[in-house]
Design goal:
114 residues; mainly beta; three-stranded antiparallel sheet; two-stranded antiparallel ribbon; 5 strands
């Protein structure tokens, strides 16, 4: 089944579409998941914990029609830039372990007050 945006390409109705991603630049580890559905072009990304930065990917579309008879099977790519901003996480700290020392003392031998 072809997407609705390709309805005007009636001479290519029997061809299958394939979307793909290529790394262009930036921090490739800011996402824990980056995937594109090869058939629909749906892009899914999930930010990685405690990561921030910028990543540029190239989304490409091709079909299986081949290039014979002047055909074109690869279309212009589109660069997509993602910016994951740093979050203002609540401050954290560790309380150091304290050692409490108790000393056993003798009872007071002071002079009683009158």
């Amino acid at each position: 089944m072809r997407p609705s945006w390709s309805a005007d390409a009636t001479d290519e109705a029997e061809q299958s579409l394939n979307f793909s991603l290529e790394y262009v630049s930036g921090d490739s580890e800011i996402f824990s998941l980056v995937e594109v559905d090869a058939g629909s072009g749906r892009l899914t990304v999930c930010p990685a914990p405690e990561r921030n930065g910028k990543l540029t990917l190239s989304l490409k579309l091709s079909d299986d029609g081949g290039v014979s008879n002047g055909g074109v099977d690869t279309f212009a790519s589109a660069n997509i830039t993602f910016v994951v901003r740093e979050m203002n996480d609540p401050p954290t700290f560790l309380v150091p372990e304290h050692t409490v020392q108790l000393y056993k003392t003798r009872p007071s031998t002071g002079v009683p007050r009158s």
